[in-house]
Specification:
heterodimer, A: 228 residues, alpha+beta, B: 430 residues, Aspartate Aminotransferase, domain 1, Aspartate Aminotransferase, domain 2, four-stranded antiparallel β-sheet, globular, binds FE2/S2 (inorganic) cluster
């Protein structure tokens, strides 16, 4: 396999792969780093783990594309450093590359502390990868979410229930029963302004009072995932 | 099984359902019309007459293959435009007088499905008939869906994803009977339209035997140029045009005719028709060999589409537990081009609507691969695929947390607990 010439994805009339970032109009050919992590993923869990090999596990499914991510962690109880992180995914190339990179970021240099590891944003993974197309940002979010779930499970397991962070869903539009999580998801699926959001979710149509808050959430999640 | 590092790259194009390379004879036939006979066919001088003669002989040649009259052939800018013209053209011509109901199927191409979405906003009711587990529409379902207000039935001749061939002639015959029983003349609605883009190179295109009123085909799937198509419109059937202007193509498609492309399309269709039988047999044999060997070499694979009633060059199958886009990228690394119905590759993140319509769970769409063979495909190409695929699948399975069963139900999503807090995949909420 030659590693240099990055080339675009193949496309077909069946499903068109997106190789152009619709917002920056940049062509995306997977970077050498993405390729390296995609073709040689790091920290994969290849065998059934031994009973005490890990302290906790987190599994999430992506509401965007239906993919599944599984993350296992081993934590040093004294320092709270993540000494081992392994993963598996039923996901696309970007999910494989992003999770591989995330696993390296968390475990390199003797491992980050849980507090620091939780500070890693999907944006940071993307930077280390040298970019992913916008449409693929939700794939890196998958690693992040599975990790958060594993950490929460860890805190439960060691009795530190107060450290568990739950991202509760908050209802934004009561008539449509739409929560901030729905808005987050829609942003990840590409609804980056109020008009697209309303097309997707009908949010705020029957409840105009909710619109300022919706716009604020769009800005917030756009910044969180797209960094602008 | 060889390991991936031992395998050398070889360019193998297996996405002929997406598009085909232009045949060198077609290119040769087109070339003079760019430079020498470049005239506007509407002109009266010699350079224009050359172009206009080329246009008529292309039309005649195509008409002969379709067993139609030349004036029933309208040249368009491609398959999508022809489909759009058929749907909007009939709906807008007959809707007000006869009724606003159209029948299609769940597995149509987006070039048909999206126009129906637009027509809904214009007051049309659309019935999307279901298909069976092999993606076959049923004649009875279509007839049962017919109403006095139905103006159009649009069913594809062969499906682009899974290759299933639909019973167009039987549907046509049943509609003709229905019309007779209901006191309708042949040139009264409802009309039958078929998108034959995928079928054009492989199946009978005789419009009388097919009993269709409108038929779409294009150049890019039959080794002709891209950006050119035809819509066959039976004499007496009327359309409202989408593009108006200079009144070309019997006022149904204005704009100076794309003479080189039209000449190329006609030539491509002639070549495809000549070679049809030998090429069908050759492709079916290669395809059958490919599928037989995949089943031996790769565990947990399932055929999508009909086991026999399918296009000879189409293979579509699901590899359980793996995601198709990742597989596609790995295969690409070894020179193999194919496509997948995975949600991850589509801009809307929707899994293949065809595989879902066959009643399969979305994970089957996720792990589906389509290989469509073509004129250049050789036994060596197939052997290369058979060498690369097993280690790629083994590797991706080692990455995957899933272990699906061979009879997974559509309602049971595999890793259900993974989805509970964050919600189920978006297409399940619809
Ligand atoms: S994980 Fe499905 S698109 Fe990336």
């Amino acid at each position: 396999m030659e590693d240099t010439n990055a080339k675009p994805l193949t496309t077909s009339d069946m499903q068109t792969a997106d190789v152009v970032n619709p917002h920056t109009k940049q062509k995306w050919a997977y970077s050498p780093i993405v390729k390296e992590h995609f073709f040689h993923p790091k920290n994969l869990l290849l065998e059934e783990p031994a009973p005490d090999q890990f302290d906790a596990r987190g599994t999430v499914g992506s509401p965007a594309c239906g993919d599944v991510m599984d993350i296992w962690i081993k934590v040093d109880p004294a320092t709270e450093r993540v000494v081992d992180l392994k993963w598996k995914t039923f996901g696309c190339g970007s999910a494989i590359a992003a999770t591989s990179m995330f696993s390296v970021m968390v475990t390199e240099n003797d491992g980050l502390t849980l507090t620091d590891a939780l500070k890693i944003k999907p944006q940071d993974i993307m930077e280390r990868l040298g970019g992913l197309p916008n449409r693929k940002i939700h794939c890196s979010v998958l690693a992040d979410k599975a990790f958060r779930k594993a950490v929460n499970n860890y805190f439960h397991a060691v009795g530190k229930h107060d450290r568990v962070e739950v991202e509760g869903a908050r209802v934004i539009d009561a008539r449509m029963n739409i929560t901030d999580k729905d808005i987050e998801e829609a942003v990840l699926e590409g609804a980056l302004n109020l008009e697209d959001m309303q097309k997707k979710l009908k949010v705020g149509v029957g409840d105009p009072a909710a619109i300022p808050e919706i716009e604020q959430l769009i800005r917030f999640y756009k910044e969180k995932y797209f960094g602008a | 099984m060889k390991s991936l590092s031992e395998i050398e790259k070889r360019i193998v194009y297996l996405d002929h359902a997406a598009t085909t390379p232009t045949h060198p004879d077609v290119v040769a036939a087109m070339l003079p019309y760019f430079t020498d006979h470049f005239g506007n066919p509407s002109g009266l001088y010699e350079i224009s007459r050359d172009a206009s003669e080329a246009l008529s002989s292309a039309r005649e040649s195509i008409a002969q293959i379709l067993h139609s009259r030349p004036e029933e052939i309208i040249f368009t800018g491609g398959g999508t435009e022809s489909d759009n013209l058929a749907l909007f053209g009939i709906a807008r011509k007959y809707g007000a007088k006869w009724g606003k109901h159209i029948i299609t199927s769940q597995i149509e191409h987006h070039a048909v499905l999206l126009p129906t979405e637009v027509l809904k906003k214009e007051g049309f009711e659309i019935t999307e008939t279901t298909v069976n587990e092999h993606a076959e529409v049923s004649v009875e379902n279509i007839i049962a869906a017919l109403r006095p207000e139905t103006v159009l039935i649009s069913i594809m001749y062969a499906n682009n994803e899974v290759g299933t061939i639909e019973p167009i002639a039987e549907i046509g015959a049943a509609i003709q009977r229905w019309k007779k029983d209901n006191g309708r003349k042949p040139i009264d609605p409802p009309f039958l339209h078929t998108d034959a883009c995928q079928a054009a190179g492989a199946l009978n295109l005789n419009v009388d035997e097919l009993k269709v009123d409108l038929l779409t085909l294009n150049g890019s799937k039959i080794y002709g140029p891209k950006g050119v198509g035809i819509l066959y419109v039976r004499r007496g059937v009327q359309l409202v045009p989408l593009i108006v202007g200079g009144g070309q193509e019997n006022r149904l498609r204005s704009g100076t005719e794309n003479v080189p492309a039209i000449v190329g399309l006609a030539r491509a269709l002639e070549i495809a028709t000549e070679k049809r039988e030998t090429e069908n047999a050759r492709l079916a044999e290669l395809r059958n060999y490919l599928w037989a060997e995949i089943q031996v070499r790769v565990p947990k694979v399932i055929l999508n589409g009909h086991p026999t009633n399918r296009l000879p060059n189409n293979l579509n199958f699901t590899i359980l537990d793996i995601e198709g886009e990742a597989a596609l990228l790995y295969m690409d690394e070894f020179g193999i081009s194919l496509s997948t119905g995975s949600a991850c590759t589509s801009t809307s993140l929707d899994p293949s609507h065809v595989i879902l319509a066959m009643g399969k769970p979305y994970e089957y769409a996720h792990g589906s691969l389509r290989m469509t063979l073509g004129a250049s495909t050789t036994r060596e190409d197939i052997d290369h695929v058979l060498e690369v695929l097993p280690p790629v699948v083994a590797l991706l399975r080692s990455i995957s947390p899933l272990n699906l069963s061979m009879d997974q139900k559509q309602e049971n999503i595999a890793a259900h607990s993974a989805f509970v807090e964050d919600g189920v995949p978006h297409w399940m909420k619809k």
